[in-house]
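[Q] Does anyone have a clean structure-token version of this?
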Amino acid sequence: MSKLKWTSALAGGVLAALAAGPAAQACEVTVGLVLELTGPAGQYGQAGAKSVEMAFRDLNEAGGVLDGCKLVTDTRDSQSQGNVAVDQATQLVNIKKVPVVIGGIISSVSIPILTSVTAPAGVVQVSPASSSPTLTQLARDGKTGGYFFRTITSDALQGTAAAKYAIDQGLKKLAIVHVNNDFGVNMVREFSSAFEKLGGTITSTTPYNEKQASYSAEASAAMAGEPEALYLVSYPVDGATIARAWISQGGPQTFLLNDGMNSTDFIESVGAKFLDNAFGTSSGTTPTKSTEYFYGAYKDFSGGIEPSAPAADRSYDAGAIVGLAIAKAGSAEADAIKAAIPQVVAADGEPIFAGKDEFARALELIKAGKPIKYEGVIGPVGFDEYGDITGPFRLWRISSGEVTTVGQMSAEDVMSLKDELAGK
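[A] Here you go.
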């Protein structure tokens, strides 16, 4: 299944192009993107799409892949809906014949793409931000075929990190309102178990369905039991509506928030003055030279999107890893790319960072048959047998309308706490 789409530069025929030399041998490798450009998670997808484009630009300016081929994107909008995402991914895989799909951002989009499209077709899928433990379980059950990877840690650990952070901030009596999908249900299950074992009390748990005009009923239900704060597991658009309903009904202006809620849209929609006691956790970063490069260059490239936007950093890494893997594979075939992805973050490889110059060095090492280790914007990564990564968790709070990092929990500390709470 060829994934090379020759451009009009080769319209005169392959032989003519070869005779004209390398400059005429332009070609493109198309990678499919199914991202949440609109809908409740639209802010994530817009930032993510720009990040992948930036990674591909850097790789292309470094010389491209497969002897000078340019990486290009075919970007589709999932509208934050699983059924729409499946339709778009099906078109990319069956009609456009892409070897890789990057996306979705949220788990309720990534899971149906994986189970209905990419895994059955044997096409690689890399999600920058889908954190549901269900994705790990699908891999354990042999339902991904090894074609799925993600550049975010699982909520199986983040729920525990959030519980510890809440207790440390004195938040011991919480109401929970959560999106009623795979991400929300799993996050709350992991959080609730850890939070109660750490001595916290959950006064109520209220699921909600997305894209409602009003969440007054859910906010009212969450008031039961006189909670001291609200743990809101949501996305920026719906989350802002829920937070406003909570505040207008007299709920305590103290919040615990999930990753992705540290967005400017959420803060502006709710009002900064109501969020000075808002705390949250995110899949964190271990700063590298890639982090420094990305934070210095992304805003200009993206047209004003902040580099701290949800999913921006790890989407760049998803694009970089896919692009380097295509170069390492030596072909745009899905099976070869799948095998190459762990190899471009090889523990014994030469460290490589983000940006044109570093990618040029990576491409030279690949041509020389030497191992490389891409150390990303989110830090050094490595994939386990299920396509998962492990990494630290960022602890943050909102102050005067700004999201400020106040600490970090290592993956090892979280795993140790999780084992301790489980009695291991």
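[Q] Thanks! Anything notable?
[A] The CA atoms of residues 66 and 327 lie 6 Å apart.
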